[in-house]
Amino acid sequence: MGRRTGPFLVLILALAALVLLGLVMALSATAAPSLSGTDSAWSLFRSQAMWLGVGTVGVLVLLRLDYHRWRRPAALGMGACLLLLALTALPSVGLSANGARRWLGTGSIVFQPSELTKLAFIVFVAELLSRPDRHMEDTRSTLQPVLILTGVVSALLMMQPHLGACLLIAGVATTMLYFAGARLSHLALAGTVGASLTALLVAYSPWRRERVLGFLDPWQDPLGNGYQTLRSLHAMAAGGIDGLGLGSGRAKWGFLPYAHTDFIFAVIGEELGLAGSLFVVTLFVVIAATGLTVALRAPDRFGMLLAVGITSWIILQAALNIGAAVAVFPVVGITLPLLSFGGTSLVTTMAAMGVLLNVARQIR
């Protein structure tokens, strides 16, 4: 539905460039973890390629599906995601790894409900704030429900625990409320409360406090809390301007933990150099600028808020991930959209881009 507008073409080219680069980097970065789990260096790459196929089908379907059809199932989808998040907290149901319980599934079919929740949250908030009977001056029917939902989602995420996803949801909610017309004084107050709660969570959690202190001075504990940060910086420094060459990086071979997920940007910097890193950053800047253009030219308020929510999600998540890799932000365990290894993240983000592309096809 719609036409091939300029922003639509720019977005689809940026999306294609990121997912293709992500697939190439998955081939390079997953060899070591694949060998540690199976006898084949291709096992994780084949999995990522399969999920890319699923995501591609999702994009092709959703860019043709009128985004207005998302209004009716918005509440149902949000409720289902809240239930899935709650199920991850049950020891007999949720699957745990590395001290976190964030997954559901069985056997080879495992997914992360927090990824689905991001898209469901955006659709629900966009639908709520775009109803004809809801006016931003009436905070009881607009601002308060969004803040309460943000708090509920954050509480469920902290049971996993997943502070990075909480920060992301809060950032997306704030951005959507701002574009919807919420008063800055209200947003400032909500932000102050949220920041205070986050500070308390960090202060009274020894491992979170040590992680933040490790970010502030990684050399204080180079073999502990500062290890990932220092290894990431070393990898990118070793890459120089043009990199060591695709597949020639050394950090992924056990020197940098979670190189294929949380620190894929460091692998890109090591193998493709500063040039490759800037290429990735440029693509996200293009998505940010084009997504904002789509929002401002959307045919209605619902489309505008969808575009704002999806764009802010992808850009904020990219900023948190890249910032952690270059030691600008603490490590919060969040992936790089469309580039990091992970089936649920890839498919959900591509689905969100499909919705954004559909809005872009209908802009004024």
Q: What does this protein structure show overall?
A:
The radius of gyration is 20 Å and the shape is globular. Helix 4 runs antiparallel to helix 5, helix 5 packs parallel to helix 14 and helix 7 (163-180) packs antiparallel against helix 13 (301-325). The protein is mainly α and 364 residues long. It has 14 helices and three strands. It has a three-stranded antiparallel β-sheet with strand order 1-2-3, with helices on one face.
List keywords for this structure.
mainly alpha, 14 helices, 66% helix, globular
Q: What's the gist of this structure?
A:
The protein has 364 residues and is mainly alpha-helical.
Largest sheet entry: 3 strands, antiparallel
- Give the radius of gyration: 20 Å
Cross-sheet strand order for the largest sheet = 1-2-3
Note the run of SSEs as H and E.
HHHHEEEHHHHHHHHHH
Quote the beta fraction: under 5%
Distance between the termini: 14 Å
Morphology call: globular
Q: Could you report the average pLDDT, rounded to the nearest whole number?
A: 91
Spans where pLDDT lies below 50 across 5 or more residues: none
Helix content: 55-70%
Structural class call reads mainly alpha
Tally of helical runs: 14
Based on DSSP secondary structure assignment, what is the total number of beta strands? 3
